Automatic annotation (TrEMBL):
Keywords: Glycosidase, Hydrolase. One of its GO terms (cellular component) is cytoplasm. Residues 388-506 form the Glycosyl hydrolase family 32 C-terminal domain. This is Glycosyl hydrolase family 32. GO terms for molecular function: sucrose alpha-glucosidase activity. Belongs to the glycosyl hydrolase 32 family. Residues 43-346 form the Glycosyl hydrolase family 32 N-terminal domain. PROSITE patterns: GLYCOSYL_HYDROL_F32 (PS00609), PROKAR_LIPOPROTEIN (PS51257). It holds the Pfam family Glyco_hydro_32C. GO terms for biological process: sucrose catabolic process. PANTHER family: EXOINULINASE INUD (AFU_ORTHOLOGUE AFUA_5G00480).
Length: 520
């Protein structure tokens, strides 16, 4: 039997005087750069034009560098450059001039950057540590001639903390052996072998190369996925994480198409790496998707994070190639996810799973929590938490449920225009379902509206954290053991919250807080 609706929160914008109603209203269009309708307020976006994959992510001298695939002359994909931004806290971002421009070898596709602290490349001068970018040159000229060797790997270096770059005069440093898809180098230092390791996307697999100096590269091995797919591998990453006192290696593979819910997505493998070969712990393990939402792709990790920090930090492109070029924004297209800290933790059956949580510097923009506890989902009456915030803000909603067998709990986020998303926790099916069918503007592509599920282990109370921005909802279940990132395009921010369910469910704790705009 379905329980009575519970109106839990009413999140007021400044000047609002009414509880959001679930009937159609007028659009809350905003004006001004960085405050347009649907412009994310807590996520990185370019000021204008097209952006996709995060690139060149390196920490150096107190700054997190974020380069990204960028087309400065259009809001759709085109000749790729590396856009550039920096941050001191991974939350507030400063836009910098374009880092890398196309050249005679081609446009600048995805890649990575490292701090060559031992100057193995010889690029360092006067004691300055060189930042070295390793990227793919894509020759559209060769491609138009019908050749398949149009992607090669090149390097560039910077001695002024990434503000200006010098391309290596002997580029490319890795020629194409005759493979159509040969791109997206992710480079890291491997201490045991005292070599740089490049993880490269090569058609339907990843290949590993090694180098003593970032200039001369030697093929070591390849790793092919065990399951059949019709997609192309892109933007791989390889990094170590501690698990129960042992070092494990995690291999990211972004796949397009081939994602569980259609389009592009990222899977991961856990195993061993000896500087030459990656061997998964369980070759027959079911597919591990990093994020079960539709809109987290091509994500990779930052390099050169100080040892005393100890975190492995991630950011992804918040879109899907099924519809990325037609989402209903005009001044800009695409945002990055919130940065996340990654860990290996024990999952179902005692096996390790990859957990991702929003970085703790989110506190820099967070208001005070408003909280209520011990609220049965079946309550006929419930308290309301009210607080004010500016219209162009975002918020975090944190809920903890006790859901018994044969019970469900549904979270409905809505606005005064009648737009809604529904998030349902279903213990019998051991699933969470995210429904954005009626979330606002969905008609721009048939693959956008839909319901998407993820497996959830209902082992005790279930915690749900939601980060709700102007055009996205990022969900973390049980501390990030399950992640779902989805775009939404409501007329106005989804500030109404209702919770209802069936069966025996208890809302143990409910909290909400404002997340203020990073652009102010």
């Amino acid at each position: 039997m379905r329980t009575v609706f519970l109106i839990l929160f009413v999140l007021f914008g400044l000047g609002a005087c009414n509880v959001p109603q679930k009937d159609k209203g007028t659009s809350g269009m905003k004006s001004g750069l960085m405050s347009e309708q649907w412009r994310p307020q807590i996520h990185f976006t370019p000021k204008a034009q097209w952006m996709n994959d995060p690139n060149g992510m390196v920490y150096h001298d107190g700054e997190y560098h974020l380069f990204y695939q960028y087309h400065p002359n259009s809001n759709v994909w085109g000749p790729m450059h590396w856009g550039h931004a920096i941050s001191e806290d991974l939350i507030h971002w400063e836009h910098l001039p374009i880092g890398l421009y196309p050249d005679s070898l081609g446009t600048i596709f995805s890649g990575s950057a490292v701090a060559d602290v031992d100057n193995t490349s010889g690029f360092g001068k006067n004691g300055k540590t060189p930042l070295v970018a390793v990227y793919t040159n894509h020759s559209h000229e060769k491609e138009s001639e019908g050749r398949i060797d149009y992607q090669t790997q090149s390097i560039a270096y910077s001695l002024d903390n990434g503000r200006t770059w010098t391309k290596y005069e002997k580029n490319p440093v890795l020629d194409n052996p005759g493979i159509r898809d040969f791109r997206d180098p992710k480079v890291r230092w491997h201490e045991p072998t005292q070599k740089w390791i490049m993880t490269l996307a090569v058609k339907d697999r990843v290949s590993f190369y090694s180098s003593p100096d970032l200039k001369e590269w030697t093929f070591e091995s390849s790793f092919a996925q065990d399951e059949e797919h019709n997609g192309v591998v892109e933007c791989p990453d390889l990094f170590p994480l501690n698990y129960n006192g042992q070092e494990k290696w995690v291999l990211f593979i972004s796949l397009n198409p081939g994602f569980l819910h259609g389009g592009s997505g990222t899977k991961y493998y856990i195993g061993e790496f000896d500087g030459k070969e990656f061997i998964p712990d369980d070759p027959n393990a079911p597919t591990h998707w990093f994020d079960y939402g539709k809109d987290n792709y091509a994500g990779v990790t930052w390099s050169n994070i100080p040892e005393e920090d100890g975190r492995t930090l991630f950011i992804g492109w918040m879109s899907n190639w099924q519809y990325a070029t037609v989402v209903p924004t005009e001044q800009w297209r695409s945002a990055m996810t919130l940065p996340r800290s990654l860990e290996l933790v024990e999952g179902a059956g005692g096996k390790p799973v990859l957990k991702g949580e929003v970085v703790n510097t989110i506190e820099n923009i967070a208001g005070d929590w408003q909280e209520k506890s011990d609220l049965p989902v079946a309550a006929a009456e419930a308290g309301t938490l009210e607080f004010s915030f500016e219209e162009d803000a975002a918020y975090q909603l944190s809920l903890e449920f006790d859901i018994q067998m044969d019970a469900t709990a549904t979270i409905d986020l809505y606005n005064e225009a009648g737009d809604s998303i529904f998030i349902t926790l279903d213990k019998n099916r051991e699933l969470v379902v995210f429904d954005r069918i009626d979330s606002g503007e969905t008609t721009f592509n048939e693959n956008f509206p839909g319901k998407y599920d993820a497996p959830v282990a209902f082992e005790g109370p279930v915690k749900v954290d939601l980060y709700v921005d102007q055009s996205s909802v990022e969900m973390f279940i049980n501390g990030g053991k399950v992640q779902m990132t989805n775009l939404v395009f409501p007329e106005t921010l989804l500030t109404g919250v209702e919770i209802y369910g069936s069966g025996d469910s208890q809302l143990i704790t409910a909290k909400a807080r404002v997340l203020n705009s990073i652009w102010k």
